[in-house]
Amino acid sequence: MKLKKVLAAAMAVTMLGSLTACGGNGGSGEAAAAKAPAGKEASTDGSKTVNIAMTTTMGDLDPFAPPTQGRNFLRYAVYDNIAIFKDFGTSWDQMQWVLAKNIEQKDDVTFEIELYDYIHDALGNPIHASDVVFCLNSISESGNFTRFTNYMESATVIDDNHLEVKLKTTTVGAFEYMLAQCCIVSQKTYEEHKDQFSTKPITSGAYQVTECVSGSYYMLEKNPDYWQTDKNLRSYTANAYDQGVDKLVYNVVTEASQATIALQMGENDIITVCNNAEIGYFMNQDGTPTDGYSVNKVLSSAPMLLAFNMDEGQMFDGNLALRQAICYAINQEDIIAGGLRGNGEAIKDLGDKLCGDYNPEWNEEDYYDFDLDKAKAMLEEAGYPGGIDPATGAPLHIRLMIDQQYKDTAVVIQSQLIAAGLDAEINAYDNSLLAAYQYDPAQWDLYVFIQGTECYVTSIYDGIFDAGADGKAPKCFVKDETLQGLVEAAHEISTHGDETVEALHDYVRDNAYAYGLYQSYTFSVGRDTIGLVNHPWGQLVGPACDYTNFK
C-alpha cells in the first residue's frame, strides 16, 4: 500500500491554525497563542509520549455531562469508576473493581460497597464514601443518564469507607451499569474547581489532563501521586502507567484522511477509530494488518437504530402505516455497503448480537425486509399516496437527525426515502447540539443513533423506551402502558427470560416504534509495536494498550 502523499506546508497550516485554548483554569474563553499539538517534540525531554489521533470531537469532560463518543474515549483514561467492565457481559462480581475494595449484596436491590481507605485525587483531596454518594446523586439528578435516574433509589453513607446503594428495580444489568457509568471525583475538588472540569478535570485517575487546546489536542500526563500504589490492584486502564508512558497526547483529527496521513508520517502512533474508507491502508483484504501496523476489529456493542418521533401531534403519532412504510423503504444492506463500505452486519432487532439474551432466530425473520412497492402501498394506506402530503400537495417533509460523524449512513437513508417519494432533510449535528436536541421532539422526525449495552438486549430497550416521570419513552416520546409493562417484564431479574424478551421484541417490531439498522465494525489502528486494547463497548482505551515494545 503506497504512502499517502501530503504537502508539508498543508500539514503545517492544519497544525498551526488559529485555535481557542482550554485555558489554565479550564475556561473556554481564555485566549492562547496558536501552537502545534504537543506531539513528537514533547518527547525531547526523555519522556515516553504516545500520540493518539482522536477521530471525533471531544464533548464535555465534566463527570456528569451527557455521554458522547468523544468523551468516552477520554473518560476511561482520566476518571476512576467504582468498577469497570474488562469483558463484555460480566456481572458486578466479575467486573474489575477499581475504587471498590469489596461489594456485598444485601438483598435483591441493596448493595454495600467498601472503598479503599487511601483513595485521593491529584490535588491530594481524599475520596470517601460521601464523595461517591455525591457523584451517584449528581449523575442521577443531572437528567443526562435516564437509565441511571430510573435505576437508583438512593445512595447513603455508612462511614468514611462504606456506602449503601439501593435500586428502584431489579432490572438485569442495572447495578453493573451504575458501577461503570458514574465517574467518581472529590466533592471538595469539584466544587472548588467546577469551571475547569469540562476540559481539564481533576481526578483520582492515573493520568491527568494538563494541557489542551479546544478542537486541537488534549495532553494527559502521568499522575506522580496516583493513589493505587499496589500494581496488582490497578485496573487494566492503567497499563501504560506501569510501562513507562509519561504522556498521552490526544490530537483531534476528525478528517479521516488526515488521521491516516498523520499515522503514516509518524506524527501519531494510534488512530482511535479508522474510517472505513481508510482502513485499506492498514489492513489487507484477508483481515491481516499491513507491514508496520496493528489493527483491532471489533463488532460494535452499540447498534445503529432509527427512532420515530411519537410525541403527541407529530406525523408518526397514531400512524402505524406511515412508520411501517419508512421501515420497508430502508435497505439495510445498501446502507452497510454505501455508508460503511461493507464493514458491518444487518440486525433484525434493536439489540446487540453479542448479548446473551439475543435470539439468533431473529436473524431469519421478516423484519420489514426492503420492499419499495410495499413501502409505497403503505404510504397510500397512511394517507400520503405517492409520498405526497394532501394538505400541501408537496412530498411529505421528514427531518432526519444524526450525529455528523455518521452522515454517510444518513445520506443513504435519505436517498432511500426519496426513492419512496418522500422529502427527507438531513440535520447532522456535533456532540453538544445532538445531546440537547435528541430530547426535544420539536427538532426531529426520525432520529438515527447508536444505543449501547453492557450485557443484555433488554438494556438497549430500556435506554429507548423505559419511561421517566412524564410517562414518555426517552428516545421516541411514545406513551404506551402495554409497552412499559413488556419492558419491565423483560428486564426484571425475576421475569427476564426467553418468553418476556421475545414478547418485547415482537411488540416493538409490530408497532414500529424503532427499527434496527446495523452493527458496524470498529477499527482501531496503531504501530505494530503497540498492543491495542478496546473497551468491551468498542472504544479504544489509550492507557490500557500494551506499550512494552513501543519506543
UniProtKB/TrEMBL annotation:
Q: Where is the signal peptide?
A: 1-23
- Is Transcription tagged as a keyword? no
Q: Does the keyword Signal feature in the UniProt annotation?
A: yes
Q: Name one Pfam family in it.
A: SBP_bac_5
Gene3D superfamilies assigned to the protein according to its UniProt record, in alphabetical order: Dipeptide-binding Protein, Domain 3, Periplasmic binding protein-like II
Solute-binding protein family domain location: 99-448
List keywords of the entry alphabetically: Signal
On the tree of life, the source organism's domain of life is Bacteria
Q: Which PANTHER family match?
A: PERIPLASMIC BINDING COMPONENT OF ABC TRANSPORTER
Q: What is this protein called?
A: ABC transporter substrate-binding protein
Organism per entry: Hungatella hominis
